[in-house]
Amino acid sequence: MKQGFKVPHTLILLLGMMLVAFIATWIVPQGFFDTVTAENGRQMVVPGTFTLSEGRSYLTPWDFLTAIPRALAAAQDVIFFVFIVGGVLSIARATGTIDALIGRMLERFGHKPNLLIFMVVFCFAMASGAIGTAGEYIPFVLILVALCKAMRLDAMTAVGMIVAGYGIGYGVSAFNPFTVLIAQQIAGVPVYSGLEWRLAIFVPFVLIGFHHVWSYGKKVLADPNQSLTRDLPCPLSGSVQGDYPKLNRRHQLILLGFVAALVTAVWGIATKGWYLYELGGVFIAWGMFTTVVGKIAVDVAADRFIEGVKDLATTAMLIGVARGIALILEDGQILHSLVYGMSLPLSYLGAELASVGMLVIQTILNLFIPSGSGQAYVTMPLMAPVGDLIGVTRQVAVLAYQFGDGFSNMIIPTNAVLMGIIGMAGVPYHLWFRFCLPLLAKLMLAAAIVLVLAVTFGYGEDVQPKTVEQSEQS
């Protein structure tokens, strides 16, 4: 390997991508679709209304510079949630609960790392597929990193099992209210329709994710020098030890509070529409509970909380700058142009190839529109009628959207949750990209095969589609 080349810091890579997006706003034609307001207040594009802007406005270097603090403000919900979780977990570590939990899990899984990896991937995929959890996994990052270190694995293995579960769960979801249900409503097919097909492919895709993470983990176990993160410090190096305290009743009570916080969070998401602000409040309550039960002096708890927050300052900057890439494209008024330009070639392909083309388009667009629901409102009003013209059922169009949005969530740097997870684990983005790209390739190949089979076997033909206008009226 040639010496002298060094991969830039993740922050520099993200700023470089912002610069590329900034230059693209000078080159790509500016245009827009007409939009209508859906019942939930979100803006949805109207197919067939794309027009180029008459005059062209250019972003200036000053716009580029101010986009960075604006992006930090736009990503504040994720940033503050990461800060809160880091601070509260630092308090929990001070009670010895984290070390005791790791010791107990080592007793259970120490000789069965493959079982641990499968359980995490499967359970996280189930949760993401059912209720759309994503940022809720952030509290598990530091715990799983320390556990993997103690099992002679590494931080990459910990991040791999979390993100693989999260991305696959979104990609093959049967019920996700933030992606599947919204996309089906926009496409004009009954919600929850096509459920059997999505349930049938869930386990095979989970096994692909498990196999990739475990194959890497086995290499690290056999030879620690195979670890991609071997030269990086462990975020919980002080907790990775040979002797762990016993899990006493005080620790158990604190962990019971953690479970109660998670249950409350899931209940709030499912019934009250909660997200990161409310979840942050739940974890603050758990931090207070931990301070009291753990008999920690309030000044000590405050110091530990601030230490936990300080440790995540870099992560916060990465999350904010990542948001800036999409912000630049929005300011430059080229998002709709990109969507329109990518959708045009589909009309020249056969149904099978067009379904795979939809997958590719949705994957690329997720870089620019990292919000799953936001992507549905921009792309599905276009993909559904295009599918009608070329013989791709609307159910297949929804499936292509799911695959493209969910799987690419695992690798796109504009995904704030991903940047938060790898930042907390201390994994640079370029190393994560190196680990995740082969997994994404496997999942995309499997997704392409599923889409071709779905077209071949007429998936969704039994569903009578409604037009977008009818969908709005209903």
Automatic annotation (TrEMBL):
Major subcellular site: membrane
Transmembrane annotation, as ranges: 12-33, 78-102, 114-131, 167-187, 199-217, 253-270, 276-297, 309-329, 349-369, 381-404, 410-432, 439-459
Membrane topology term: Multi-pass membrane protein
Compartment(s) where it occurs, according to its Swiss-Prot or TrEMBL record: Cell membrane
Key words of the record: Cell membrane, Membrane, Transmembrane, Transmembrane helix
InterPro entries, sorted: C4_dicarb_anaerob_car-like, DASS-Related_Transporters
Protein name: YfcC family protein
PANTHER family cross-referenced by the UniProt entry: BASIC AMINO ACID ANTIPORTER YFCC-RELATED
Pfam families: DcuC (PF03606)
